[in-house]
Each structure stands twice: as structure tokens, then as C-alpha cells.
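F-box domain-containing protein (Penicillium brevicompactum), 233 aa
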Amino acid sequence: MPASFLDLPGEIRNEIYKYLLVHDGTIKPWRGDHALSPNILATNKAILREGRSILYGSNCFDFTLWNRNPSWIEVFFGTIGIINMGYFRSIRIGFPRPNWGRGPFTIHEVSLNNIIMIGGFCGRLESVTITPISIFVLGNYLSGPPYPFELYGPVLAQVDSHFRVIPTLKQITVEAPPCLGMNLRKMMEGFGWVIRNAAEHWYGYENDDPNADENIWCPIEDDELYEDSEMCC
């Protein structure tokens, strides 16, 4: 009788999962050039249960550029399913988009929903990094009208409170560009955020169309791949 993959010792299977599923850099979900092989998880339920914690728990997922259209983050979360969201340990995001113009200064509804989802379903998350391109934009909001500086404190507090509900969270890091003002820097440090100086160059946009590359994540979503109550939440 030929041996199967599941007959291998668990230590060897884990090394194979790491080779196939772990990327040295960050993973941008809208791009398909990570040289990963997540389709192994679609082989059967046993391999899915074993491997998905490595795929989602051992990689850092970068959602920064989706800040231009924050609804794409919700689409990705809906694709991979609630169970897989629970394995995230490290993510990079843009600062939630604010509403600006007339009326009170608040977080955009879609962006707020994203951080609520992260706080509610990413229960193993240890590290959140807020990336420089979005802080550059936020810094421009603080340079003058239409809102006085003191209105930004409650917005930052709201962001912080949704992340702090995650019991495993160890650190919120802000990669700050040179243009970040001292007042905003001190305000963020007041919430316990770690400010790290980013490289001094322009953070331009890449192609952030989630349909531009083959969507490698669809085959491994847990809520539809198997009709198994254990796989659904």
C-alpha cells in the first residue's frame, strides 16, 4: 500500500507546509507572485486543518494599499472565512480613512467596520503595523483646516480601543514618514503605539486591483470548500 502525505511524521509535514505556505516578505493578498502553493489546503479536510494555521499564522499580511478602497479588505476576509481570520498574528494596514469636509470628523464607516472585524475575529493577532503612506495622508489632514487638532484625539482613541480588545496583541507600530508632525507623534505615543521612522522616500501606489492577478485565495476558503459544520462558524 503506497504511503500518503498524512502518513509522514507531523514534524516533516510541518516543514513541508512551511516550505509551501510561508513567504519571506509580507503577503499582499491582491498579488499572486508570492511563490506560495496554498492550493495544497484544498486536498482534503485533514490537510486544511493542519496547514491553514501556518499559512495565516506564519505570514505577515499587508492590507495597506487597500486603504484606497477599504471595502476590498472585507471581501478578502469574506473569502478566507472567519476560522482562517483567527490565525492571523501579524498584519500591516493603512490608517483608517477619515470622513472629512462638512460635519464632525469621524472614521469612514467602511474603514471602521474593517478594524471592528479585525478586533472581533483576529483573536490571535500579536502585531499591527500602521504603514507610512496612510500616515503621510493623515499628516496632511492635520496641517490646517477644516478641523482643529484636538478633534483627532478621539479618532485615534477609537482606533486604539478596537485593537486593544484583542487579548494577544503585543504591539501597535506606526511607520512614520519624516512629515509626521510632533504633536501627532506624541498623541500616538500616548496610546502606547511604537513610532518607527520609515525610509525617507515617496511611498507610491502599486497596482492594487484585486482582480489584476489570479485570486489564489478563493480555492482555500473554509466556509464553502467543505460541507462540514466543523469548518463553518
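Residues 149 and 183 are 9 Å apart (CA to CA). The radius of gyration is 19 Å. ok done for today
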